[in-house]
Every structure is written in structure tokens, then in C-alpha cells.
Amino acid sequence: MAEILRVVVSARKGGCGKTVVAVLVARELARRGRRVLVLDLDPQRVGVSLRLGAPVDPPLPYTAVDLVLGPSGRPFSAHSVIEGRLDLVPANQRDLAPLERLLAEMHERRTAATGGDLRRDLLDTRLAGVEVDYDFVLVDTPTGFGEVTTNALEAADVVLSPIDMSSADNVESLADLQEHLEEVKRQPRVFFIPNKYVARERQSQAALARARVLCRGRLLERALLPSCAAVAQAMAERRDFVATSETAEALSLGVWRLGRLLIGLAEGTAGERLAEGARDPRRRWLPPPRAPKQRPVLDARPRAHALPAPIAPRSSPLSRFRPPGPS
Ligand SMILES: Nc1ncnc2c1ncn2[C@@H]1O[C@H](COP(=O)(O)OP(=O)(O)OP(=O)(O)O)[C@@H](O)[C@H]1O
Ligand SMILES: [Mg+2]
Prior knowledge:
CATH superfamily: P-loop containing nucleotide triphosphate hydrolases
Radius of gyration: 19 Å
Number of strands: 7
Structural class: alpha/beta
Bound molecules: adenosine-5'-triphosphate, magnesium ion
Order of helices and strands: EHEHHEEHHHEHEHEHHHH
Helix content: 25-40%
Number of domains: 1
């Protein structure tokens, strides 16, 4: 039987595509008939609430802050984005601004009262009370690993972490997620999503080569998301994304594969290779620090067994989005 799957989108780096991934995956799961609740914890002007077309001007009847902080006299309610399929607990900058501090204070008080190394499990507990009508809960988080994000990670079954592939330097910040997760007591499965990939750009190729080494099996290379103007446009216009070009088709394919993976994980049927790397949540995915004589990043080639199957046959119109690597 399918379980409610909580998916948290998180990364150290700003602008890597957390909100875009949350929106695309939420719409994809809804399209496939799943009931999805999106929780907006990202205090950005252009956060998931706006991009899903929700009104965000205060006062909102019920916000993500009500949900996280618990009983406030306001009963749970969600904004319907797609009737019966996709709901959103919205928030705006003003609501979310004090949340980081409030959560830290609550945690300090609980620690002082009970002692010990307490789990930051507020969101975990609150979600359990409201999620029963859904198949998936998707949480968009702020950049970095503050109190809000740590609460979200403590509630997560799965973490999706987009990597901005426009520069190889972006890939190095993956180590921060691993370090932070070692302090999180509930161990979610982690998947990295290569985002904003540009096949012809050497920086993107170098980023992908480095990500293969660093993420090992946790890199969802088959769900690679190219840089695509249409998706940025759709987000700006707060509408669903329509694939009208080859690049957009490739992005749709990546999102479709992400949806398939998440449904497989929820239904316990994710035996496919996409999920292989995250089987053992306690396994470290980063290699030890680089040896001094290691080859430069641009020459770094993945080991043969770390390569996934090609994402499309050579004759496919999508083949130019296939990541470089030995054929
Ligand atoms: N695959 C993509 N193709 C083109 N543009 C993209 C893609 N992914 C994200 N973007 C654009 O990159 C910018 C940052 O994306 P997004 O807001 O999702 O990042 P974020 O990680 O949520 O940022 P923040 O840390 O500010 O919350 C946005 O303008 C978005 O439209
Ligand atoms: Mg964001």
C-alpha cells in the first residue's frame, strides 16, 4: 500500500532551482492523479506560493507558519491550486520572516525543560496531523540549513537537492548537505538533481563530471533538467509549463522521471536504477578529501560502474541533451 511520502527540496546554494523543482514536481504528481500538499517555507518574493498562482497578500486565512507553530485557533486550510489534486499552504515574506527565530526559541525552551539532544521534530509532528488526505507532501525550503530547513529535514522521507550546473564550483557545496544531514536524526533518502544544464557549455560538462564523482549513485542523471527559458517564463507567469521546444521536451522528460521515482518510492516499487544510490541512507556519498595528485576537474571521468544508462537512444531528438560520457 502506498504511504504518504514527504519530499523536502533543500540545498545550501541559493538560486539552484529548489522552488522550480518543487513546483514542477508538484504539478507532475498531480497530473498523474496523486493528491499533493505543498508547504511554502521559502521566504522569497518569488516563492512557491506565487509560482503556483496563490494570493499571498496578508492577511492569509492560514499559512505555513500556522502549520509549523501549531494550535493558534486557526483551523487547517489549504489553497486549492488544482481541484482535488494540488493544495498549497501558502506564506509570504512577512509571515516567514520571524519563523527562523521563533523555531529556535521554541527549541531552546524545550531543550531547557527536558534536557538532552532533542530532535527538531515540530514540523514532523504537525504534518502528521494534517496530511492524511494526501499522497505527497512537498516542502520548499529557504536556502541553507537554518532552523526552518532542519525542521523540514527532520520531517522528510526524501530530500531532493537541485544542483545549478551552470558552474562546476556550485557542485562543491554538496558536502555541506551531507555534513548537515549527519546531525539530522531522521535519515531521509537524498537525491541530487542536475538542473540548468547546458550541454554545449564546458562549465556544465565539468559540473556534471564532478557531480558524478561526488554524488555517486545519488545523482539523478536520468532526471537531468536542462536550462530552459520556457520554464523560467512559466514560473514568472505563474502558469503550468508547456513543452514547445526540444529543450523543454528534455526538461519534461526529466520531471516525468522524477515523478515516476517518487511514486515508486511511495508505493514501494522503486526497484529501478534511479533509486539505487539512496538505498542505504546512512552511507556517506562523498569520497574522502581529494588526494593532492588528483586529475583536474575537466579531465575527471566517472568510473564505468557509476554511469547510468543513456537517457535516450542516439537517434532521439533529445540526444543532444544526453550528458557527456563514454558511450
Ligand atoms: N531548469 C531551469 N531553466 C531555466 N531557468 C531555471 C531553471 N531552474 C531554475 N531556473 C530559474 O533560476 C532562478 C532561480 O530558481 P529558483 O527560484 O527555483 O531557485 P531557488 O533555489 O528556489 O532560489 P532561492 O534560494 O532564492 O529560494 C529562477 O529565475 C528560475 O526561473
Ligand atoms: Mg526558492
